[in-house]
Amino acid sequence: MTLPLPQINEQAMSDNSRLGHARSADYVFRIPTPPRVVIPALNAWNNHKSSWHPGNIIHDPDPAVNVDFLQETDYVGELARPVVSGGGWTYANRRQAQSVLSYLYLGPQNAARDKDYLQREGITMILAIEHKTPSGSMLTKGPMKVADELGIAKAKVEVAHNQELISLFPTTTRIINSHLRELHNRKTLNPQGGIPDGKVLVFCESGNEKSAGVVAAYLMDTYTDTDYVKAAQICNQRRFCCSFDDSMKQLLKTYGELVTAKRDISKLNNQPIHNQGHPVTSPFFGSPGLVSPQPLQPGSYFAPILNNGRKREREIEQEDVDMDDGDGDETMADDQDRFSGRGFVPFR
Asked: Please, which residues bridge with residue 154 across strands?
């Protein structure tokens, strides 16, 4: 006797006709990626009236890096001045450096080894963002030699890849501000000594990627009203060829959130904000020092944030225990609250 075969109803996983919900969008077959970070373009990046004021300078209790003396100067005057005279941006402009603020310049390595340009602009320090390869050190050798010949300060940080920059941002900010502060102190003690105001040129091979990220992070670190969007817009306004790809924008967004959290925690604890990069000594004349900082170790600059993260881990463990004890209804309600107010939900 032959038994009838059981009838099998095959149903695709994407078929939700018999379920109580429907998907909001089609399935895609690609590697999961974070949402794209969109930075709106400026309507007129090269106009005479810029509304992109970075805000006030944040006071740092460390006198070696506190630059609030710049508050009395026109440090944002460059933002109201057109980058190029006459016509718009040309391809040749990318080979030159541009002033982002009155004391902060951004450009390629070609500009960093141009003696005439450095002397004409009054640059007192060059900061190289060097790719950590044998060829990277060869590319920065020329600008470092020029700095020695001109008797100006020089510094460099070595970066293996862009993701490593986030641990070096506090250090690069400290390098810049310590140089500005030391020159200001020397000028205050000897007003007739002919000591110039500090001006720093930050550069990498192209002046469009790593060095642009360092300058954007500096703006977030130093000014009250500058987030990652405004920082990138200011850099693009002054140097139109800056290239912030998705990974760099995500990196700046994450760093901006960390900086904001650090400030909020300091306010709650009534503690001053310290920008704890590595100590930097930057002589100005004679034999400037070469700085090659190392990435910060976890638990230094963002120690309170990391401690709060461990506290949150303990809270999650306690929630798991409560769910096992029968308190899962309240936990489930809390879980549903996480999705309230979101613009997109996967299923309806």
From this structure: 126
Rounded Cα distance, 281 and 40, in Å: 39
Q: For the chain, which residues make up each domain, given as ranges?
A: 68-81+93-266
Calculate the CA 327 to chain-centre distance: 43
Cα(212)–Cα(232) distance, integer angstroms: 8
pLDDT tens per residue across span 4-45: 666 655 555 555 555 567 888 888 888 877 778 888 876 544
Q: What is the phi-psi region of residue 130: left when phi exceeds 0, alpha when psi lies from -120 to 50, beta otherwise? A: beta
* Identity of the amino acid at 58: I
pLDDT at 119 over 80: yes
* pLDDT tens profile 149-163: 999 999 999 998 888
- SS3 labels along 180-211: HHHHHHHHHHCCCCCCCCCCEEEEECCCCCHH
Torsion angle of C-alpha atoms 79, 84, 86, 90, degrees rounded to 10: -130
- What is residue 336's three-state secondary structure? helix
d(CA 148, CA 146): 5
Q: What was the pLDDT predicted at 290? A: 42
Nearest to 295 by CA among 177, 204, 203, 162: 162
Name the residue with higher pLDDT: 60 or 2: 60
Tell me: the pLDDT tens digits for 238-248? 999 999 999 99
Least Cα distance to 74 among 34, 101, 46 occurs for 101
* Residue 341 in tokens: 């107010």
Q: Is the pLDDT of residue 213 over 80?
A: yes
Instruction: Judge contact between 128 and 139, C-beta under 8 A.
Output: no
Residues in a beta bridge with 106:
98, 202
- CB-based contacts of 6, cutoff 8 Å, min separation 6: none
CA distance 284 to 126: 11
Q: Model's pTM, two decimal places?
A: 0.72
68-81+93-266: CATH superfamily: Protein tyrosine phosphatase superfamily (3.90.190.10)
